[in-house]
Amino acid sequence: AQSVTQLGSHVSVSEGALVLLRCNYSSSVPPYLFWYVQYPNQGLQLLLKYTSAATLVKGINGFEAEFKKSETSFHLTKPSAHMSDAAEYFCAVRDFGNEKLTFGTGTRLTIIP
Amino acid sequence: NAGVTQTPKFRILKIGQSMTLQCTQDMNHNYMYWYRQDPGMGLKLIYYSVGAGITDKGEVPNGYNVSRSTTEDFPLRLELAAPSQTSVYFCASSYRSYNEQFFGPGTRLTVL
User: Fold this and answer.
1) What φ, ψ does residue A69 adopt, rounded to 5°?
2) How close does chain A come to B97, measured CA to CA in Å?
3) Is the pLDDT score of A28 beyond 90?
4) Residue B34: pLDDT over 90
5) Residue B84: helix, strand or coil by DSSP?
6) pLDDT-above-90 percentage for chain A
């Protein structure tokens, strides 16, 4: 079964610093990959998705992620953190032929003023 | 266009009580999903539906039931509530399984 690993349940960065949130998946075939963000007391909303087109995917709010097949990774980055980026971030994977998403356990991002 | 709506926002149940969590989407999406979110555990799929009249179990279906009589509605039924069902429940929908899922605001359920 597909699994998703998010390294670091909590990540803290200073305002203006680089944000790097890690995601690794287990599929041997490149799947569909997603990053979602959850602000406090809200549902999840899509940041970006990879669907086998460009390996570098740009999303909303200045976030981007790079698909690396050799590393089975899909890490999320943002060059300069903003206070409004404080939230929980989830990586999710869907295999071809599978109608379901598998979510990682999430990474809570804290921004230090 | 309201997207995905869920009611109620909060609910406290006593052990053994039953309730239905409501979910409605107005985007004419074929796929609908129910997840539960527990701290540090991510989201776990309870049930999903690929269209009206078709439902299937997800990862954690025990203690729950669903039905899908219309495209818009996908209620989740809890029978004989247990403390282990204390969680935040999210409904989501998508046009196709590979499309983005749109999430509702969630229902926070406590079973005492």
Assistant:
1) -60, -40
2) 5
3) no
4) yes
5) helix
6) 72
Mean predicted lDDT score pLDDT of chain B: 94
How far B104 CA sits from the closest chain A CA (Å)?
A: 6
How far apart (Å, rounded) are the C-alpha atoms in residues B5 and A63?
27
**DSSP character string of A54-85:** -SEEE-GGG-EEEEEGGGTEEEEEESS--GGG
Q: Which residue has the higher pLDDT, A30 or A46?
A: A46
Contact check, Cβ <8 Å, B43/A103: yes
Of all residues in chain A, the one with the smallest CA distance to B41 is A105
Determine the Cα angle at A42 with ends B105 and A59, to 5°: 110
Inter-chain touch A103–B98, beta carbons under 8 Å: no
Distance from the first to the final alpha carbon of chain A: 41
Taking CB atoms and an 8 Å limit, are B100 and A42 in contact across chains?
Answer: no
Q: What is the pLDDT of residue A97?
A: 73
pLDDT for the residue B19: 96
Contact present, B49 and B68 (Cβ < 8 Å): yes
Residue pairs between chains A and B whose CB atoms are closer than 8 Å: 51
What residue type is B79 in one-letter code?
E
